[in-house]
Write a structure and sequence with these properties.
Layout lengths: L1 E6 L2 E6 L6 H8 L18 E4 L2 E4 L12 E3 L1 H4 L3 H12 L9 H14 L5 H7 L10 H22 L1
Parallel strand pairs: 1-5
Antiparallel strand pairs: 1-2, 3-4, 3-5
Length: 160
């Protein structure tokens, strides 16, 4: 079956089994390895992508479900000013150890800050609640997202 959709702002078309997971298509067919497979059940958040602007776990979505839709991955997010700010804040805040969960965490952070540019730490914790980290722990991640929000706010003030 031919599936057509927007992938990171480019129109793509692929002839594929419609039941193949979006995660596998992104990694195997498009070489977008930033999206990771963790639990394969939609519970850990390692495979998060934006589907029509909503944060979703790509391991539980059949590729047929994205026909005509808009998919954005960490590869796109990292090219945006907000994505760059989040990634730099994670590095500066010491929120990266093994790095396996980080693409999904960055996706959740991007989604959160896109919708709430000035979150409280409680809102940050809720915003990343669908993502698991076994190395760093959540305090450093929360502080890094909070730092990113401050930096984004400062950028907006400077442009004023």
């Amino acid at each position: 079956m031919t599936i057509e959709f927007s992938l990171n702002c480019e129109h793509v078309s692929i002839d594929v089994d419609p039941t193949k997971r979006l995660l596998d298509v992104l990694r195997d067919d498009f070489g977008l390895t930033g999206v990771k497979e963790g639990c394969s059940e939609g519970e850990c958040g390692a495979c998060c992508v934006l589907l029509n602007g909503q944060l979703v776990t790509s391991c539980i979505i059949p590729i047929a479900g994205v026909h005509g839709q808009d998919v954005r991955t960490i590869e796109w997010v990292r090219t945006t000013r907000l994505g760059e700010t989040i990634i730099q804040s994670y590095a500066d805040g010491g929120a990266v150890q093994c790095g396996f969960c980080i693409p999904g965490m960055v996706m959740a952070s991007y989604y959160l800050l896109s919708n709430n540019p000035n979150p409280t730490k409680k809102e940050i914790r809720k915003g990343i609640s669908g993502n698991m980290c076994r190395c760093t722990g959540y305090d450093l991640i929360v502080e890094s997202i909070y730092l990113a929000a401050k930096r984004v706010g400062e950028l907006h003030k400077a442009r004023g």
